[in-house]
Each structure stands twice: as C-alpha cells, then as structure tokens.
Amino acid sequence: MSWVTVIWSMTAATCLTLAGVHLLVWLRARDSWMNLWFTVGAVAVAAHAGFELALMRATSPEHYGTVLRWMHVPVWVILVSFVWFVRLYFGAGRSWLIWTTCGLRTLALGLNFWFTPNLNYRAITGLRPFPLWGESVSLPIAVTNHWTLVGQLSSLLFLVYVVDASIIVWRRGERRKAVVMGGTLALSILVATGQSALLVWGVVPLPYILSLVFLAIVLVMGHELSRDVLRAAQVSRELRASEQRMSLAATAADLGMWEWDIAGQTFWVSTKSRERLGLGESEPMDLNRFLQKLHPDDRETVHRTLDQAMKGNGDYQSEYRIVLPGGEVRWIAAAGHMNFDAAHSPVHVRGVSMDITRRKQAELQVQQQRDELAHISRVAMLGELSGSLAHELNQPLTAILSNAQAAQRFLARDPSNVEQVQEILTDIVADNRRAGEVIQRLRRLFQKGEVERQPLDLNELVREVVRLVQSEVMSKGMELRTELAPDLPPVVGDRVQLQQVLLNLVANASHAMMGAAPADRQLVVRTGYSAGEGLRVSVTDRGCGIPAGDLTRIFEAFYTTRPEGMGFGLAVSRTIIAAHQGKIWAENNADRGASFHFTLPAAPGGKT
Amino acid sequence: MTAGTPRVFVVDDEEPVRRALARLLRSAGFEPAGFGSPTEFLAAFDPATPGCLVLDVAMPGLNGLELQQALAARGADIPIIFLTGRADIPMSVSAMKKGAVDFLTKPVNDENLLAAVRHALEQDHVGRQARAELAIIRQRWATLTPREREVLAQVVNGRLNKQIAADLGTVEKTIKVHRARVMEKMAVRSVAALVKLTERIGLPPAS
After folding, report:
1. Structural domains counted in chain A
2. Cis-peptide into B107, omega within 30 deg
3. In Å, how far is B29's CA from the nearest CA of chain A?
4. Chain B residue at shortest CA distance from A429
C-alpha cells in the first residue's frame, strides 16, 4: 500500500469533487462568480497534486525538470483564482496589490518557460531517493535559480494583500470572516512559501507537499461557500414558514389574494378570491372576466383606479361590488401595488381583497337612520315655519279672491269690459302659480326622498331659505339681511338637508333675539370663503348669546334652552354637515349675540 | 291728489295683492291708489284729500301699526282698515283702540272690505264736515270784538242784560246792542243755539 499515492490522489479527488459541486452552483446562478473562481482554483489544486505525485515518482533529472516546469501552470492558476476569490469574498482589499501579485506570478510563469529546466533550478544534475511514509520518493540534486525569488515575491505580496484585506474586514466588524479566511490563508501562504523556499534553496531535503496546504485552503473556502448555501436553504425554509403564516393570516382575516402578470397576461387568484368571485376551481381568469363579474356601475371606477395606479406610484385601492351568479351583490375592498420595469410600464400587480359587505350594509343603515332623523326634525320644524307659510300662501290667495270678485263686479256692471277681465285672469293664473310654488317648496323640504348629492350654488340656497323665512322673521319685528360673496364655486351636497341646516340656524337666531330691543333685532346670513376649508356660511344674530360653557354642548342631542324645543335641530345639523365633510361651530360675537358657522368643501372641478 | 273725490289708499308691500285690491275697489266705484310701503305713502300723503287707508299689517321696514302711530303723531285722522295674514287678537285690539275702523283677515271677502271702506269714507266725510263747521264757527267768533266776547260769555252763562250791564259798568241799552251784534255775527237766532255753538268750539262757560 502506497500512502503517498493514496493521500495525493484523495487530495485531488476531494478538490475535484468540490469543484464539481460549485461548478453546478455557478451554472445555475451565473452571477455567483465566487463559485466559479473556487471551481477553477480547486481544479488547479487537483492538477497540482498530480504534478507533485509525478515529481516524487520522477526517474531521471530531465523528467523531474520537465514536470516541475509544467507544474508552474497550475500554480499560476491557483494564485490568480485564490486572489480573486478572496477579493470577492471579502469585498475589500487594494487593487494595486491584486494586480501586482498577479503580474509578478505571470512574470514568474514567463521566466519559468524561459529558463531550462525551470524557474526553480539552473540545472538538475541528479536524483536521490528520500524516504517518505515508508516509501522512497525522488529529490533533485540541483543548482538553485535566483529568479525563483520572483515567484516567491508574488506569494509574499498575496500574503500582504490578504493581511491588509483581513484588517479592513475586521474593522468593518466581520471578525469571524477576517479570522477564519484571513487567518487560514495567511498561515497557508506562509507555510507554502516557506516550504517551497526551504526546498528550492536546498536547506531542508523534502519533496513538494504544497498540495496538502492548498487542500487546506480549498477546504476552508469550500466551507465558507457552503455556509452561504446553507443560509440560502435556511432562508427558503423561513420563506416557506412566512408564506404559511401569511396564508394563515389571510385565511383568518378572510382576505383573498391575487396577482396579475400584465406582461405575461396571466391572472393568479387565491382560492378565497375564487370563491368570492364565484369562479370555478380551474376556470381561467383575466382582466375582462374580472370586470364582467363587477357590478356594471362600478366597472368604470375600477378601470379608472387601475389607470391612475399605472400613471401614479403604483398603489391601488378601490371598493366595488361584484354580482354573484345567483344575483347576490357583495361589496369588496381591494388594495394592491403595481410593479414597474425600468421604462415605467407596469409589469405586474399584486393585491388583497376583502369582503366588506357587512360594513357597507351597516354604513348604509347608519346613513338611512341619519336621513330619517333629518327628515323627522325637518317635519318638526314645520311649526317654526307655519307663520311664514300662512303669509306666503295668504298673499296669493288674497290676490286671487280679490281679482276674481273684481271680475264678477266688472262683468255685472259692464259685460263688454273683456280687456279688463282678461288682465285679471292673467293675474289670477300668475298668483295661483305663485301659491303652487310655495307648496312645491314646502313639499321639497318635507318630502322623504332620496338624498341627492349634486353641485349647488350656495348663494342660491341661502336665497331660497330666506324666501321661506322672511315673512316669519319680519312678523317678529326682525330684519333678515344677506351678505353673499359673489362668484362662489359650487359645493356638492343635498339641497334639502343643507337648507334644513340653514333654516335651523335662522330659526334659532330669531328665537335668541325675541327679548332683544327692536333696534337690535338684526339677523345676517353671510357666505364667503373659509381659510383653507372651502366655503363658509355664517348666521349672526344680536340676541342673548350662548353661555361660554355651552358652546359645544348645544350641538348635543336633547340639549335645548327653549321650553318648546326638542333639542334636535343643532344635533341633526351637525350630523348633516359632517356627512358633507364640513364643520359646524358656534361662537359669541364681540359686542352681542352669537354666530353660527358651517364650512363645506368646494366641489372639485370649479363652476357648475 | 285733488281734494273733493274721496280716495282709497292701499298700502301693501306685494304688488299683485295691491293690484288686486285696487281692482276690486275700482269695480265697486271707488278710486283707489296703491303704495308699496308706509314710507312711500307718508311721503305722498296730503291730509286735505278725503279718503281712507287699507293697510297691510306685516311689511318690511315700517309696519302697519307703526304707520298708524306716525299718522296720529301728525294729527291726521284718516280712517284705517287693517288687513292681516293672521288673526292676532291682541294686535287687533290695540289697533282698534287707536281708532282703526276695522281689522280684516286676508284673504278678505269683497263684501266685508267694501262695507268697511264705505264705512270708513262715511266716517271721514262726517269728520271732515264736523271739522269744516267748527272752522266756520271759529271764524265767526274771531270777528267778535273783545267787548262782544265778554257779553257773549255772560249771555251763555244765563245772565240778564241788566246784570251784565252792572258787571261791565254800563247801561242795559248798550248791552242790548252788543247782544244783537253777537247774535248776528255768530248767525244764531236763539240763546240756546248760541250756547250750543260755544260748547262746540270749547269756550269756557265763565271767565
């Protein structure tokens, strides 16, 4: 049994095996250059081991010289590949050291082929046997070539590079890396260079056993590389666990997930989302099919939202209804994010969706209750307006009656006075229409209709309310003035509900002034801009004011200062204004009386 | 406005109502004139014109009751018929106390309105006549000399000529002449008529 053969062969085999593994890794991931350098280095070490074995088995000085000469090739490869491996592994080090190291080694290789027999020796005169692990191996009897220093210098430079880079890495905080890789390399280079030098200069009679040192380096490098592979495996395990957690959370939260590959035109939908859309297990999905599932009224909105996400930062959020095959309608909230390529065209969208039908129903119910309450309190306000209405209706009725009776008299006296009678009839028709309009206005205010959001002219709204209450306010000896800012942008809202708020404020103001001196019975309704909050309407009286502690309490339900009041008006007003994204508040005037203000956002898009 | 024909002034802030009321009045043979506000009416008002006022209570600015007060302050006693949208008893009582002819609720029936207008014009006519007579009596009284006024005062008090003469330090015959002159200037034939006249112009019975 030849131990030398066994050990060197195993060294070569180990290196080749590791090289094979990392070659595969590199083939799978072409940008992992470390694996490639490792592979090249390990193959070179295996070759080096073969050459060493051949040296030990050399039979003639010429043979020895030739083998040693060719052995410089794997040495060159080993040094270059190790240098680059370390460079990539540490991500640090001085470039000029790398290039000088590689350059010197290349120069050494060139000199090696220049000299006969090689870089190490000027001449090999003979061989002598040397006992190694119970075997006899060949050692040269030779004259040393001084140029061999070039090769050794390159090794020393490599050592300098490694030490320098290790220090940088150490300082960077990656101490383990610095110690393990830096330490092993430095030691190995020292040993290898030392052994080679002692040998070449003939100080110690020993065969080349550098392969064993290189093997150590290869093993350490391999180990470090595998750590990365192991970490990747760990990460993939963690990823799987995280995915499981995610899907558990999604299931628990009743979330559906979807992914739309815009480029590849594929649509992935989680089981939950499939159920939700009423899709079969294997039914294909695409954007059109998805849009078909939507409520017709919502398709446009969803499309627009997607378009906006594409043009914007990619975030996407919308609420829509889907119609199930059975006709059932469900509300869905979806949120997602779009990823773009370098040219900012969308590549794919990922998102989650949630069934919010219950929440929507609750919202709808709250809204219905709010509208109902608003209606009830409007009806309750009828009493406030009765005087005004009586007057509003009485006037045209008075005119009609007097006109009609005048006509009767004219006809009785002078049947030919047709012209006069015709004039009277024209007036009667006009008066009748006027009375009809009063009724219409009243009906609009008190009917229980759909709450309708539309662009409104705030000034027109104020004028209508003033028409309704003018005579009532007048009959109480009060003066109602308006100060309306011209050219206000429209607001979006429900005409009836906003009129109700205004009516309420005017009614409250006139109640507050019941005890005021006649000269102080002045009520002003103003419109204008509110700083940063759209438009503002203010109702100012010169009445008794509000106790400072009650300025916010007055908006609470059932709070009232009037024996006949129910304490609903302001509470309902606040609800209405809040539903219009506005604010309502009260304050006492500097001199006397109080002012109520409410704000409404201006409608997007300017004029009606 | 020309003095002579009585006018019916209609004051209401609403033009259609004003026009209809005026028409009704015209159909019944009256001569209406419309005004949109109490202020407008006051500006054009001439106490010499006979007539009456049909006045809406609730109006912006000066209201009907305030116009009534303003007229009273000027000493104008033109009869007023109030029209109101609502039957407000305290308000109507206060208006009537201040001399309103009537207080009618809108819409008003023609018979009621025309009756009230007739009544008001009648009242205005009577009032004007009384005021005219009074003016004549005052004029006549103004023609009396101081001595004659002294005699008149004594006569009205039922003193005899003799007593008057003694009081004034003269003879009975002179008093007789004065007395005859007073009766002639005041255009009365009996002492009883003279007493009535002096009561109407409010002369003190004794000095």
Report:
1. 3
2. yes
3. 10
4. B16
pLDDT per position as a tens digit, A557-586: 666 666 666 566 788 888 888 888 889 999
Q: Show which of B121, B137, B153 is a domain's final residue.
A: B137
Q: Which domain holds residue A302?
A: 253-355
By C-alpha distance, the chain A residue nearest B56 is: A395
CA-wise closest residue to B59 among A517, A471, A371, A203: A471
pLDDT surpassing 70 at residue A1: no
Q: Do B58 and A471 touch (CB under 8 A)?
A: yes
Residue of A nearest to B63 (CA): A477
Name the amino acid, one letter, at A389. L
How far are the Cα atoms of B47, B81, B99 from residue B68, in angstroms, in the given order?
A: 14, 10, 9
Q: Is residue A607 part of a domain?
A: no
| Among the partner residues A398, A474, A475, nearest to B17 by beta-carbon distance | A398
| B133 and B147 both lie in a single domain | no
- Report the distance separating Cα A590 and Cα A553, nearest Å: 20
To the nearest 10 degrees (0 to 180), the angle between helices A33-56 and A61-90 is 160
B153 touching A, CB under 8 A?
no
- Give the tens place of pLDDT for each residue, B67-124: 888 888 888 888 999 988 776 777 778 788 777 888 888 889 999 999 999 999 999 9
What CATH number does residue A60 fall under? 1.20.1070
Is the predicted ipTM greater than 0.90, yes or no?
A: no
Count CB pairs under 8 A between chains A and B: 82
- pLDDT > 80? residue A367: no
Its domain, for residue B81, covers 7-137
Q: Is B19 close to A401, i.e. CB distance below 8 A?
A: no
A540 min Cα distance to partner chain B (Å): 19
Q: Which residue of A has its CA nearest to B17?
A: A399
Identify all chain B residues contacting A399, using CB atoms and an 8 Å cutoff.
14, 16-17, 19-20
Q: How far is B108 from chain A (nearest CA, A)?
A: 6
B108 and A CB contact within 8 Å: yes
The SS3 call for residue A483 is strand
Confidence bin at A605 (pLDDT 50/70/90) = low
CB B17 within 8 A of CB A435: no
Check CB contact under 8 Å for A398 and B106: yes
Mean pLDDT, range A133-139, rounded to an integer: 85
CB A165 within 8 A of CB A182: yes
Residues B54 and B65: their CA atoms lie apart, in Å, by 12
Using a CB-CB cut-off of 8 Å, the residues of chain A touching B23 are 402-403, 406, 424
Total domain count for chain B? 2
On whether any CB of chain A is under 8 Å from the CB of B125, the answer is no
Rounded to an integer, what distance in angstroms lies between the CA atom of residue A116 and that of residue A122? 7
Residues A74 and A197 in one domain: yes
Domain identity same for B85 and B102: yes
Residue A88's alpha-carbon distances to A181, A190, B50, in angstroms, are 12, 22, 121
Residue A151's nearest CA partner among A69, A96, A89, A229 is A69
Nearest-Cα distance to chain A for B68, in Å, is 16
Closest-CA distance, B123 to chain A, in angstroms, reads 24
Q: In what order do the strands lie in the sheet with A266-269?
A: A266-269, A255-261, A346-355, A329-340, A315-323
A342: tokens are 């370098």
What percent of chain A shows pLDDT beyond 70? Answer: 96
